[in-house]
Design a protein that fits this description.
Layout (H helix, E strand, L loop, with lengths): L4 H11 L13 H10 L6 E7 L4 E5 L12 H11 L7 E6 L7 E2 L3 E4 L8 H13 L4 E2 L3 E4 L35 E8 L4 E7 L5 E10 L10 E7 L4 E10 L5 E5 L4 H15 L3 E2 L3 E3 L7 E7 L3 H10 L3 H10 L9 H14 L23 H12 L4 H7 L22 E8 L2 E9 L5 E9 L7 H13 L3 H10 L7
Helix pairs in contact: 2-11, 3-6, 3-7, 6-7, 6-10
Length: 490
């Protein structure tokens, strides 16, 4: 009995290899040459290419346990889409332990976080605007933040790369607002030879000292010419800027994370509530919503299908870590350990065993996370047969079009033909995703480099993507010949 073609494709995709298939074990010449020019030995790479519905094409160092950097987000987002569902949302609630009388709340106002990865400044403002629309103006009690859903695992923000003020190092939090970031806008003025620095949001707990000098010349490394001194603690902070700023740079933005979660939310609440015409004279503290508290307003996050797009297109580490924590929800709250176990159990239910897999936070912003090129490719092959494949694939950057791939391969034939997640750490570079070849067949492609010269690996990775796009697809072509069909693009 002859199996339907779609069933053959599904079986091959889930199996990851076809019977007797022997992929090439030698890198294509353009890739090998690019690696040699970059000073990267073959022993430091893992490469895996597998045509979907066909056979493995290339496997070089594919079994090596390597750090994938942000390509690990593929595992986290795929797990999230399947375990939580594309329509999953996070609800942030504003509650009160008493009813407002006229426009006054004599009790406490509670904000209960659910781990929303994208509770931005605008969405937080809308939540408070709903409270004002209800007629609430004066709050005479405290603002109580219920953040207990996430375990308190806050590490030293400078632990990863000694950059504690960078927002990507912000730890997960059940009530994460605006990524706990303050964005500074640098605006040079040629007439006065000065640079204005404008903070958004303008929190009074953050003091900015501006000693920048305006100079002429080309922009270049504008941050490298600037000295930034960050001081303070969780309650207040000071950012001092000295050095030079080139007029040619025009307006630039730089975000910082310098306050604690409680202090940031409290300061932003007080600022926005006052701007909305409200009055608040209480304290800001952590606590628990009491039984019987009444929900006054709710902010619902974008759906997970939208969230994963931000995570993968723009490699948002903070959102990825928030999503990873959501995978570890249980009666005791959520923790990174529980999330890691949930992902491994999910893989096991699919019959996927990755002994080398190490998950620290699911974002790839880690020195210890590990996976092999073959097994990351297996995840992508498995995802192709999943109901959530369209959402996952659409979340990956498109070569020469958007996200972290928007500036790559613009003049190549592969432009617009590949959905590729990128990864970048000091000593690590990676790509992983789907490539559509010239015959209309898609292949899974994974390329990871762990080496001191990894920053020079882009040319080799781009060469592999172009090679996959231009190669003569043997397996897909043979299958179509048996079926008597012509190639179908798309």
């Amino acid at each position: 009995m002859r199996l339907p073609r779609f069933l053959v494709i599904l079986i091959l995709a889930l199996a990851g290899v076809s019977a007797g298939a022997q992929p090439a074990a030698t890198l294509p010449e353009p890739v090998a040459q690019a690696l040699a020019r970059a000073g990267i030995p073959e022993a430091a790479v893992g490469v895996y290419v597998h045509e979907i519905g066909g056979e493995p094409v290339l496997a070089v160092g594919a079994e090596r346990s390597l750090n994938p950097a942000s390509s690990m987000k593929i595992v986290t987002t795929y797990a999230g889409l399947e375990l939580l569902g594309p329509a999953y949302t996070w609800n942030t609630e504003a509650l009160a332990d008493g009813l407002p009388v006229q426009d006054v709340l004599n009790g406490n106002l509670y904000l209960r976080g659910a781990g929303d990865p994208k509770l931005t400044l605008e969405n937080f403002w809308l939540l408070l605007r709903k409270l004002r629309a209800l007629g609430l103006r004066e709050i005479r009690g405290d603002l109580v933040l219920d953040r207990r859903l996430f375990a308190d695992e806050a590490p030293d923000p400078g632990q990863f790369d000694d950059q504690p003020t960078r927002p990507y190092n912000t730890a997960p939090n059940a009530l994460l607002v605006n990524f706990k970031a303050v964005t500074l806008q640098f605006i040079p003025d040629a007439a006065t030879r000065t640079v204005r620095i404008i903070a958004e949001p303008p929190l009074p707990q953050l003091q900015i000292t501006n000693n920048l000098k305006v100079v002429d010349g080309t922009c270049g490394d504008w941050l490298g010419r600037m000295k930034i001194d960050a001081q303070g603690n969780a309650d207040s902070a000071r950012l001092a800027f000295s050095g030079s700023y080139t007029l040619d740079c025009g307006e630039r933005l730089r975000s910082f994370s310098v306050l604690g979660h409680r202090q940031y939310v409290g300061a932003l609440f007080a600022l926005l509530w006052r701007e909305l015409g409200g009055s608040f004279s209480g304290q800001v503290r952590d606590g628990v919503v009491p039984p019987g508290a009444r929900a006054l307003a709710v902010n619902r996050s974008p759906s997970l299908s939208e969230i994963v797009r931000d995570v993968n297109k723009y490699s948002n580490n903070v959102m990825s870590r928030q999503l990873f924590m959501a995978l570890g929800f249980n009666d005791a709250g959520a923790s990174t350990a529980a999330a890691g176990n949930a992902v491994k159990q999910w893989l096991a239910l699919k019959g996927l065993s990755f002994p080398e897999l190490v998950l620290e936070n699911g974002s790839g912003l880690s020195r210890i996370e590990r996976i092999s090129a073959r097994n990351l490719g297996t995840v992508l092959l498995n995802a192709w047969a999943s109901p959530v494949m369209p959402e996952l694939m659409a979340s990956l950057p498109v070569a020469a079009v958007d996200g972290t791939m928007r500036r790559r391969l613009k003049s190549a034939e592969i432009a617009g033909q590949a959905h590729i997640k990128t990864g970048s750490l000091s000593g690590v570079r990676s790509i992983a995703g789907y490539v559509l070849d010239a015959q209309g067949n898609r292949s899974v492609v994974v390329f990871m480099v762990n080496h001191a010269n990894a920053a020079n690996a882009q040319a080799a990775m781009d060469a592999l993507l172009q090679w996959v796009h231009n190669r003569d697809s043997c397996c897909g072509r043979q299958e179509r010949r048996r079926q008597g069909r012509k190639p179908v693009a798309g």
